[in-house]
Amino acid sequence: MTDSRDVPADRETAMPSKGVARTARLASLPLGIAGRAVGGWGRRMAGQSAEQVNATLSAKAAEQLFEVLGSLKGGAMKFGQALSVFEAAVPDEMAKPYREALTKLQAAAPPMATRQTHRVLAEQLGRTWTSRFARFDDEPAAAASIGQVHRATWHDGREVAVKVQYPGADEALRSDLRQLQRFSRLFQAFVPGTEVKPLLAELADRMNEELDYQAEAQNQRMFAKAFAGDPGFVIPRVVASAPKVVITEWVTGTPLSEIITNGDRETRDLAGRLLAEFHYSSPERVRLLHSDPHPGNFMLTGDGRMCVIDFGGVARLPDGIPAHLGEMTRLALDGDSDKLMRLLRESGFVRPGTELEADEVLAYLSPFTEPLAGPTFHFTRRWMQKQAGRLGNTRGSDFRVGRSLNLPPEYLMIHRVTAGSTGILCQLDAEIPARDIVERWQPGFAS
Fold first, then answer.
1. Domain check: are 66 and 183 in the same one?
2. Residue 295, in any domain of the structure
3. Using one digit for the tens of pLDDT, what is the confidence trace for 230-249?
């Protein structure tokens, strides 16, 4: 292990923790974007086309947005990661700067000082924590929103991943999410077709769960037990845990972010199929839903299995996915507007007294069932952009119908995770047997 006595004091913390400083950086986002908009008008007057100006503004806004979210870590980075899966919905002419900015966000942020890492490990594992390891790498292998991961060798020779929570992560997470909720309308433009305000509210509801690494370890144990022996998946087993440290077996693989960028057709399709199967089968197999779908939490191992990590946020579904969702999907696919409307009302998706035409609701929902219409479906950015444009067109009937429908609270997490997983499938450009997977695992869908 390295000696950390010569670490400069200004590297003591990896997470800017002073509330005033964090608030100031987040507040710079709307000010910076507004300033660029004013500059854009000047460039238009100087002869640049609207398209050129908008592309420039978009690139700079994306760069600033995700640089700020990533550097602050905490709730800011967590929100940025949640936004990242909707990148596929951004129009092609604007997508490049977003992709580049998001890649930086999903990569490692600056680490905390070695002596600070050691201090947390001593507090959580005891003063003799070094005796538990045969080797501990002080240089973090990865950094996340509220913690960083170190590679180590356990005392029995096993290679392990040691996730250490940043000091002050709890305060920063709460502060960030409160501040971000004030700017929710600003972020709407970055995720067309997706409601940002409920996304932020749901992230805020989950924050205490994400901060408790012992609860995360218990979630991971349940997933590992349920998927043990499955030829398609590997869930790293938990070796030890404490409230701010969790130690799991180390697994090496290719992250989905790399497959999205460089993967061949066969690898993309395999990753997409396994991702969809994991998403739809978990509520049935574990009675839990992994609720942090972004490419950094999934990778393919050398033998073609999908490794899933980070179980800090889960949805507890003691009865699995509600059968009503499968029934609604089937009715929309079959074009049975009257039965679909009745079930939507009975399940609380249409508030009492709301006037909606059954055929309009069917027209709104039917495009979402396209992936299930045939034996396979090719998830593409173009398809997701089409859906986002349809939902975001304020002059269209789909926009009005979408605003009139209600999403009951118990379905919010399921809806967000499904949308996030679909976003990753589109980023992967994967063709998968979606219907077969849904038919096997979604209660109420099979006819």
1. yes
2. no
3. 999 999 999 999 999 999 99
Clarify whether residues 177 and 51 are in a common domain.
yes
Containing structural domain, residue 215: 114-170+207-249
190 contacts 80 by C-beta, under 8 angstroms: no
Residue 332 and residue 386 in one domain? yes
- pLDDT per position as a tens digit, 352-388: 888 889 999 999 999 899 999 999 999 999 998 888 8
Total tally of structural domains belonging to the chain: 3
pTM of the model: 0.78
Q: Verify that 399 and 330 share a domain, yes or no.
A: yes
Q: What is the mean pLDDT of residues 103-116?
A: 68
* Alpha-carbon distances of 235 from 44, 203, 212, 232, rounded to whole Å: 53, 24, 19, 10
128 occurs within a structural domain: yes
